[in-house]
Amino acid sequence: MKKLLAFLFFCHVACSVKxxxxxxxxxxxxxxxxxEFMVSIQVDEVQVGYCDSxxxxxxxxxxxxxxxxxxxxxxxxxxxxxxxxTQHFFRATINSLMKLLNQTGGVHILQRMSxxxxxxxxxxxxxxxxxxxxxxDFIALDLQMLTWIASKPQAFxxxxxxxxxxxxxxxxxxxxxxxxxxLLKKYVQYRKSFLQRTDLPSVSLLQKTPSSQVTCHATGFYxxxxxxxxxxxxxxxxxxxxxxxxxxNHDGTFQMSVDLNISSIAPEDWKKYDCVFQMSGVxxxxxxxxxxxxxxxxxxSPSGFPAGAVIGVVVGLLLLLLCITGLFIWxxxxxxxxxxxxxxxxxxxxxxx
Length: 353
Ligand SMILES: *[C@@H]1O[C@H](CO)[C@@H](O)[C@H](O)[C@H]1NC(C)=O
Ligand SMILES: *[C@@H]1O[C@H](CO)[C@@H](O)[C@H](O)[C@H]1NC(C)=O
Fold this sequence. Notes:
By secondary structure, the chain is an alpha+beta fold. The protein has helices at about 1-15, 65-70, 75-100, 155-165, 165-195, 305-335; strands spanning about 20-30, 35-45, 45-50, 60, 110-120, 125-135, 135-140, 145-150, 200-205, 215-220, 225-230, 235, 240-245, 245-250, 255-260, 275-280, 285-290, 295.
């Protein structure tokens, strides 16, 4: 019995091959401080997109979907346009329903749940498009018969009206039987490759002042199953280290850092230390040796200039001196200052010098 339960549980997780792409649309009338129109797009029951009458654009709410829209800008354009067009259809529909049902005011809600399911094992596809009004089923599309079915007597007039719109019925058929499943398959495939990727980070050593701790910072890795630690002679260090949490970056990747207190490390022992980034399930590690020459810092010594800067300034002064001397000699010779691009100008000789 236990075995069977375990199998059923396992199967629920691993054998679940039914995918879905569903649009939930809600239009309201008479509800203050609430968008009159909202759309939520869900893939496998997770919201990936959203739009409403206040924001006036379509937003993506999952990293993979954001990336998908970036790679397929026309799809996003389509959603933005649809959001706008559907909004007008819903407003008109809710108004005509209120008239039809003798409702002069009050709060009314028109909802639509539409989309498709795809079983990636059997290939079976099912489309659906149904409306609810004031919290009850109202009308639904029969995709086989290509006709609307009134879920309650009050919806019958609407059914008769909508049945005359053959173009809309044909569009619905094409959308729910072809376009929607095609898009759903694309989304599932895209999400899979997006989530299965591994991005390795760039790792750098940072330090505020020569005496402060050295921070080993890794950024840009994906997924967040990773570890970053300091080693001495190849052994992970637990003392004198301060490990930070894994934090999300804006682009969906992650970053983390681990500090090493170097105050008690003798200069000749530095070479025994390194910082290791390891991604779970990935063999290669990124090793960064503790080495003064690779540490990045913004620190400038307050006492005296760094040698490089001194040499730079001296060379600069010498060049300036040469230029001034050269200019002086040149001006003596020509007895005038000629701007380079107006060498043929008559004015150049009128210089008081
Ligand atoms: C709406 O009112 C009209 C006339 O007042 C009536 O004939 C009709 O049956 C009503 N409809 C509903 C759905 O109540
Ligand atoms: C580093 O270690 C020294 C002593 O070993 C301690 O005095 C100091 O506070 C530590 N620095 C930090 C930032 O933890």
